[in-house]
């Protein structure tokens, strides 16, 4: 169980029971590096989103910037979610690699959830900007 397993119970293969392996799966050294590389890519996405949100907050003017402030404050928890997801996925896969449990080592639901949340925030921002433009 990882330190953030309670936060991301939607990871595929996450359940309370431990399966006993019927055979020991051979793990090549490149699998360890692939796990780290995936972790770094997810962290990069989270840090990029955080940088965008911080830039929007820093450069938004104080007058008539309710939309910009809302958008930036919505992106900040999403970027934190990306970073926490990256940590959880890295620790989950590292444990599976270490114990050599046979089965799937990927997560198909996490990226779908994070992508849907991000796309919905982008869509809401788009609609709010269209309404703001239509006023003029």
Explain what you see.
With about 140 residues, the protein is mainly α. It has 3 helices and no strands. Helix 1 runs antiparallel to helix 2. The radius of gyration is 19 Å and the shape is elongated. The termini are far apart.
Overall form: elongated
Strand count, sense and barrel status of the largest sheet are:
none
Give the strand tally: 0
- Low-confidence blocks of residues: none
The number of helical runs is 3
In terms of structural class, how would the helical and strand content be classed? mainly alpha
Specify the helix fraction band: 55-70%
The fraction of residues in strands falls at: under 5%
- Please trace the helix and strand order, writing H or E for each element: HHH
State the oligomer. single chain
Separation of termini?
54 Å
Chain-wise SSE layout:
Elements: H1 29-59, H2 66-99, H3 110-135
Helix pairs in contact: 1-2, 2-3
Quick tags:
0% strand; mainly alpha; 67% helix
Question: What's the short story on this structure?
Answer:
This protein has 136 residues and is an all-alpha fold. The chain has helices at residues 29-59, 66-99, 110-135.
